[in-house]
Each structure stands twice: as C-alpha cells, then as structure tokens.
Amino acid sequence: MPQLDPISYLSQLTWLIITFVSFYFIMAQYLVPAISTIFKVRKKKLEASGGGFESFQDEQDTIRNHSEQMLTQSLQISRTSCLKAMQATVAWLQEVVKDVNQSTLLNVNKHYLQSIALLQHQKYLIESAIKGDLLKK
C-alpha cells in the first residue's frame, strides 16, 4: 500500500500542509467575513423588529380572544336553536298524538272494546253450554 510506504511520508505531509493552509486562507478571506456579515445583518433586523415581535404577540392574543368569543357566541346560538327546534317538535308531536287519539284511534278503540265484549259473550255462552246450564234453564 503506497500510503504506508515510509518513503512517501514527506510528500504526503507536504500536500496535507498545503491543502490545509490554502483552505484556511480561503476561509479567512472569503467565507468567515461573509458569514459574520450575515450574522450582523440578522442581529440588526432582530433588534429593529423587537417591537414588531411584541406587537405580533399582542395581535395574536387579540385574535385568540376574538376567536374564543366568536366560538362561545356560536355555541350559544346553536344551543338556543336546538332547544327551540326541540320544543317546536315536542309541541307538534303532542298535537299530532292528540289529533290521532281523537280521530283515528277513537274508532279503533271502540271496535276493539266491542270485539272484546263479543268474545267474552261467546266465551260465556260456550262455557255455559259445556256445563249444561243453558239446557237446564
């Protein structure tokens, strides 16, 4: 393996030093000043917008409070609407039941009672015939 050859150690060390020194100078001359300029600009923007951040927090709190109030109002409105609809439905249902009981079910109830009375009379006659009471009279 050539990298483990002791004869090439000096050339490897030379190229390593040249590469790192050139990289250091490039970093020191171009990249570090550009990065520090970016950090300075960001710091100035943050200092300038420091009051803007507070106003943003105030605006956010105002919006949150307003949305909570709107939600509370909408829940109250929907609750009252549901209660009114339910009350109207109960009143309508009671009226319909009353009308049905007075018109349709009244006749049905009369026929039902007549049928039960007829069945009871027939049962009495059959039982009397079986016992022989009807023939004795």
Question: Can you describe what's shown?
Answer:
This protein has 137 residues and is mainly α. The protein folds into three domains: 1-48, no CATH class; 51-92; 103-137. The chain is 91% helix and 0% strand. The chain has helices at residues 9-48, 50-102, 104-131, 133-136. The chain starts with 8 loop residues before the first helix and ends with a helix. The mean pLDDT is 86.
Name the overall outline: elongated
Helix residue percentage? over 70%
Q: Supply Rg.
A: 50 Å
H-E string = HHHH
Count up the helices.
4
Which class of secondary structure composition applies to the elements?
mainly alpha
Which band does the percent of strand residues land in?
under 5%
Biggest pleated sheet: none
Number of beta strands: 0
First-last Cα distance: 139 Å
Instruction: Please mark out the parts with pLDDT under 50 across 5 or more consecutive residues, or reply none.
Output: none
